[in-house]
Design a protein that fits this description.
The complex is a heterodimer of chains A (about 425) and B (about 425). Chain A is mainly alpha-helical and about 425 residues long. Chain A is built from 18 helices and no strands. Chain A has one domain: Up-down Bundle (Amino acid/polyamine transporter I). In chain A, about 50% of the residues are buried. Chain B folds into four domains: about 80 residues, PRC-barrel domain (SH3 type barrels, Roll); about 70 residues; about 110 residues, MgtE N-terminal domain-like (MgtE N-terminal fold, Alpha Horseshoe), CATH 1.25.60.10; about 110 residues, CBS-domain (Roll). Chain B has 19 helices and 20 strands. In chain B, a hairpin with a 5-residue loop joins strand 19 and strand 20. Classes of the chains: A mainly alpha (about 425), B alpha+beta (about 425).
Chain lengths: ~425, ~425
């Protein structure tokens, strides 16, 4: 009966499926930072990367959703059953460290918003940690998630601001449709960062678990897919407008004033608030601060929790929020550990390095993504696991293609960095 | 060292050798173990699978002698048999390592990290599953560091007779006989909790593997959404059999959650009498006495003797949900009085029912709201309360447990302590 009440109350959010929620969680602090930096530094010419990224994101997420619906298992469980303890262990260790790093970027966003509101981050970040703890342990997960998703509507201000900035729509169209590779320094790393933040490795784990949790089966695949396609396109559309808004303001004014474009290695989060000026005027910084605060709190709430769940799933350990600490010690340690480590890292970093930390964390995500894709592609092609729902030729082509291209870009980037380091010395 | 007690993870990867004219010749490496009858309580390990250059070969357990000083497995003859196809035998490593099982005693879904075997009365048997970090560390390998760690981490083992796989172990065997099903040993509310933790696919598979009565008990304890998805998955015929075994009020609640088309398909599969009762119950709103009542009660005519009534109760009680009150009705089913089992026990066997019944009846109507049902039952200290229509005809009864269920929030229900006897989980600690 109580249940029925909730069902009515939540009917409003019925449209918000796992794909949509994942896409919202994907536009996190790292997303805002990377899309803003890409637009501010390179202008409209990076827009085209979003087109193949949309295709890859949909294909990759569809694979995760299909695996969840067909097997009823999360990605971590499937990796465990198909690759055994060793590969699972390495994957989970990597996942924990990367996700803790990403959690740190969310707190970096919270710290940046604190600076904008002239608050001390050494007070705000610990406070936010406590808030996240309480949100997770005291409130219904779904409710928290949905509140944040609704608050994510704040991103729509990028669409409005992007339009109000009167961008050169011809240049926008050219930038979107004609792939251009800039030889400027930082283009490659920006592309890898864009990939990493758009198709974050954790998103596939997250989505697949959510599909399983929702009880979707093979017969529900149409709905699962529709939700993923809509969520992905919406998420990337918002990313596109973030780039446009930054390109039309920060990048344009640099060109007009004959100043050098923004330097990623010295930029500060608050610099990117200017992209919201066409909409919010003097309140741009406030709006921007609220935006990253919401994004940071949302993903900081979801990510350490999801990570703890995923790792416990892989190792068959007790994992549930309504268990007591003594019943699920590993789960709680992972959750608390990820959260506190993430928040602590931000307090150790210098204030003027927070943006760079956030940006390069996305690059790292891009670099490890191929490893995750390879595991997914092997499992999803096994008849024993997927039955008739193994990958078709097109999905395999795009999936392996994505893994190969990103892998190549990552290797080239690493090689360049090493060469650069030696050349510089 | 004889080839016996130990963990499979410690045997996998070892070289297998045969004696060839005083010299030991390597024939391959141990990669798996075959069990032919996985349904046994502690199944025999029938053969060791040796991975050789020419493919997987089967070494019957009788040909396996011992470990030599170098830790190699010594065979009496080189294995020649081909390993059976995967669907004809159970491979312990391939089919069970890393897979989910239910720990029946601990009432949890866990993963198998390692398997312990032991030689008892001449046969090598599977005795326990390792579900803890000890098994993981052992599988990770990594030489002396891992072995050092392993010595510190106690193994968390569950005896094999408490292991209930989620998937049928041996596809060629017809469903493991229902009596053997280890999940049926769980208390229905515990079983329901485990099922609630499973994926939709596994939940349907587990319910499908239970006998109708156990399945019905478990289903009664599940939330509507899980019930619906299971009913969807197991097919109308089986679902109808299970729903027939459920208490009529729970069965009606479940049917009420389904589409009308699905309701009809299920009702058509049931016997006519049950179906008619359920049809009536489904029509009532969940949160009224009509929706909460069950039609499964004992009734009696007023002119019967106490002795005859006792005989009737003995006959009907095993099939009836609620036997502590008897409802006295006339031929047109009009409610005349109520009688508790206690009154009946204390009365003389020759007395007739109408002389000892209580005709001052507290009753409810089908549209009485849930809160009022609960408060009525509480005020008069009842175990159950009859529901009648305007003319006083008895339609059903609401029992106290359903009244409580209807007014406690779900959130609180989850936090209630469980009253089933909790055997201490078996933890065999090996050093």
């Amino acid at each position: 009966m109580i249940k029925r009440y909730w069902r009515t109350a939540l009917a409003l959010f019925a449209i918000l499926g796992p794909g949509f929620v994942t896409a919202s969680a994907g536009n996190d602090v790292g997303g805002i930072a990377t899309y803003s930096a890409a637009g501010a530094k390179f202008g409209y010419i990076v827009l085209w990367t979003l087109v193949p990224l949309t295709v890859s994101l949909i294909v990759v997420q569809e694979m995760a959703g299909r695996m969840g619906a067909v097997t009823g298992q999360g990605l971590a469980g499937l990796i465990r059953e198909n690759f055994g303890v060793r590969i699972t262990f390495v994957t989970m260790v990597l996942l924990f460290f990367i996700n803790t790093g990403i959690t740190a970027t969310e707190f970096a966003g919270i710290a940046a918003s604190a600076e904008i509101f002239h608050l001390n981050r050494f007070i705000v970040v610990p406070l936010a940690t406590v808030v996240v703890f309480l949100l997770v342990l005291r409130l219904s997960n779904k409710l928290v998630e949905r509140t944040f998703v609704i608050l994510s509507l704040i991103y729509l201000s990028y669409i409005v601001s992007g339009v109000l900035a009167k961008p050169d729509w011809n240049a926008v169209a050219r930038g979107t449709l004609i792939p251009t590779w800039s030889s400027e320094a930082g283009f490659l790393v920006t592309v890898v960062g864009l990939i990493g933040t758009t198709i974050s490795p954790y998103m596939q784990f997250f989505l697949q678990s959510a599909v399983v949790e929702k009880g979707s089966r093979a017969k529900d695949l149409f709905n699962v897919r529709a939700d993923i396609v809509v969520g992905s396109i919406l998420g990337i559309a918002i990313a596109g407008f973030m780039i446009i808004a930054n390109a039309a303001t920060i990048h344009q004014s640099a060109i007009v004033n004959h100043k050098p474009p923004l330097d990623i290695d010295t930029a500060q989060a608050v610099d990117f608030a200017r992209a919201l000026e066409p909409l919010a005027g003097h309140f741009a910084a406030t709006l921007f601060g609220l935006g990253i605060l919401n994004a940071g709190l949302f993903t900081a709430t979801v990510l350490p929790l999801a990570t703890a769940f995923i790792i416990c799933e892989a190792f068959g350990l007790e994992a549930a929020v309504d268990n007591r600490w003594s019943q699920a010690p590993v789960f709680y340690s992972l959750f608390a550990g990820g959260l506190v480590l993430g928040a602590g890292l931000v307090l150790l970093l210098p204030a003027n390095g927070l943006f760079q930390f956030t940006f390069y964390a996305q690059v790292l995500q891009g670099a490890v993504l191929p490893l995750e894709l390879i595991l997914m592609l092997i499992v999803i092609n096994r008849k024993r696991v997927m039955g008739t729902h193994v990958n078709g030729r097109a999905a395999n082509l795009i999936g392996w293609g994505t893994a190969a291209i990103i892998g190549t870009l990552a290797i080239v980037y690493v090689a360049q960095s090493i060469a650069g380091a030696f050349g510089g010395s | 060292m004889a080839f016996h007690d130990g963990f499979l993870s410690e045997m996998i990867g070892r070289a297998a050798v045969v004696d060839a004219g005083g010299r030991r010749q390597t024939v391959g490496r141990v990669c798996d173990f075959v069990v032919q009858k996985p349904g046994d309580t502690f199944p025999h390990v029938d053969a060791v699978v040796i991975k050789s250059r020419s493919g997987k070969r089967l070494a019957p357990i009788a040909t396996v002698v011992e470990f030599d000083d170098d830790g190699r497995v010594v065979l009496t003859v080189a294995p020649t048999l081909d390993a059976p196809p995967d669907d004809e035998a159970l491979y312990l490593v391939e089919d069970l390592f890393d897979k989910q099982i239910v720990d029946v005693d601990g009432r949890k879904v866990v993963r198998i990290n390692d398997i312990e075997v032991a030689r008892t009365s001449g046969a090598l048997r599977v005795v326990a599953a390792d579900i803890g970090m000890g098994g993981i560390v052992s599988r990770l390998g990594g030489g002396s560091i891992a072995r050092g760690l392993l010595a510190r981490i106690p193994r968390t083992l569950i005896a094999w007779d408490n292991v209930a796989p989620l998937h049928d172990l041996n596809p060629t065997q017809i469903q493991l006989s229902v009596a053997d099903n280890r999940l049926a040993r769980l208390h229905p509310s515990d079983l329901a909790e485990i099922i609630g933790d499973l994926s939709a696919q596994d939940a349907a598979r587990v319910i499908g593997s239970l006998d109708d009565e156990t399945a019905a008990d478990a289903l009664e304890h599940l939330d509507a959404e899980t019930q619906r998805s299971i009913i969807d998955d197991i097919g109308a015929e089986r679902a109808a059999d299970i729903i027939e075994e459920m208490d009529s009020d729970d069965a009606a609640d479940l049917l009420g959650e389904l589409s009308e088309e699905q309701q009809e398909r299920l009702l058509a599969e049931m016997n006519a009498e049950t179906a008619d009762d359920l049809r009536e119950l489904v029509a009532y709103d969940d949160e009224t006495a009509g929706g909460m009542m069950t039609t499964d009660y004992l009734w009696i005519y007023p002119h019967r003797t106490v002795a005859a009534t006792m005989a009737k109760i003995r006959e009907l009680a095993p099939e009836t949900e609620f036997i502590y009150y008897l409802y006295v009705t006339d031929q047109s089913e009009k409610l005349l009085g109520v009688l508790s089992l206690r009154t009946l026990l204390l009365a003389s066997p020759d007395a007739t029912i109408h002389t000892i019944m209580d005709s001052d009846i507290v009753s409810l109507h089908t549209d009485t709201p849930a809160e009022e049902v609960a408060s009525t039952i509480a005020r008069y200290d009842l175990l159950a309360c009859p529901v009648v229509d305007a003319s006083g005809t008895l339609l059903g009864i609401v029992t106290v447990d359903d009244a409580i269920d209807a007014i406690i929030p779900d959130r609180v229900k989850k936090q209630l302590p469980r009253f089933t006897s909790r055997r201490q989980r078996e933890r065999l600690e090996l050093v």
